Amino acid sequence: MSKPVAIVTGAGSGIGLATARHLLTHSYRVVLAELNPLTGLAASTSLGPDTLFIQCDVSSYPSQALLFKRAYEWGGNRLDFFHANAGIDDRQLLYDSMDKEEVDEEGLVKPLNTNSMQVNLEAVVQGLWLFKYYVRRSPGGRGKFVATASAAGLYCMTQNPQYTASKYGVIGFVRASGPVFAKEGITVNAICPAFIPTNLCPPEILPLWPKEHITPMTTAFKAIDAILADDNMTGETIELSQENIYFRKMADWANESQRWIGEESQGIWDLGYQKVPERPTFGA
Ligand SMILES: NC(=O)c1ccc[n+]([C@@H]2O[C@H](COP(=O)([O-])OP(=O)(O)OC[C@H]3O[C@@H](n4cnc5c(N)ncnc54)[C@H](O)[C@@H]3O)[C@@H](O)[C@H]2O)c1
């Protein structure tokens, strides 16, 4: 039987590169999706013939759709694992001072840069959409999707509010979709690293950072291994801190009514939506 095939995004550096290397030890063939052609190619050269570098901007849907098509074909018409990992921090500060505020020629306030939300959240959502298409057309039709969220999605990071929102979004997305996709053999989980030294962090930070608050890359492997080992684990949010992984649950129900809505009203929603002939498109 042919080897299983994985795509890892942001595979030119940091957690993505390390996960790609780790998947090779699990006998995967790995597509290294990366925006930066230099690091992507260097990664593929160093990791060897069971890898393929495909340059991709995950925040562009056509670019990510082409990535999936090429990866599936390279894998011999199969796809088994997708790590939606590429991520960036905020490219504009929400709290910028008045002198940095700008208006356009019509006097309208220019929008805040939300690139981090496009890369960290929108691309993850589209990534699962694409992944399920190709898994359904792969031998066996089973797959594992893992998104790199962040501890910022469980707590918050005041220096990066759009980033924080994107990571909360990823966790909500995984929790909502994971149990549904598991019914057809696709597991959907998120990992939430604390501080792992990578190129994400501005180089000025590292010398200031206390060593005892560093999470080693091996903790990420523990989470990936837990996902690989369990075909039924889905909708999980796995926090990585220091040497440990923690399975984090949703907030407690505030009261019995909220529990009922969360756990027992699904039948009503299903019935109600069945009566909607088609979901209205935007603006309709
Ligand atoms: N390192 C940490 O402490 C930490 C903590 C929490 C979450 N994370 C998350 O881990 C993920 C990986 O980050 P990292 O720490 O390895 O950082 P990194 O900067 O070392 O690696 C991220 C990679 O993603 C690539 N990338 C960026 N935009 C892209 C795009 N549009 N399309 C394709 N590739 C793109 C970058 O070029 C880079 O190679 C991110 O989602 C990040 O938010 C990291």
TrEMBL record:
It holds the Pfam family adh_short. This is NAD(P)-binding protein. GO terms for cellular component: cytoplasm. The keyword NAD does not apply. GO terms for molecular function: oxidoreductase activity, acting on the CH-OH group of donors, NAD or NADP as acceptor. Keywords: Oxidoreductase. Belongs to the short-chain dehydrogenases/reductases (SDR) family. It comes from the Eukaryota. Gene3D superfamilies: NAD(P)-binding Rossmann-like Domain. It comes from Bimuria novae-zelandiae CBS 107.79. InterPro entries: NAD(P)-bd_dom_sf, SDR_fam.
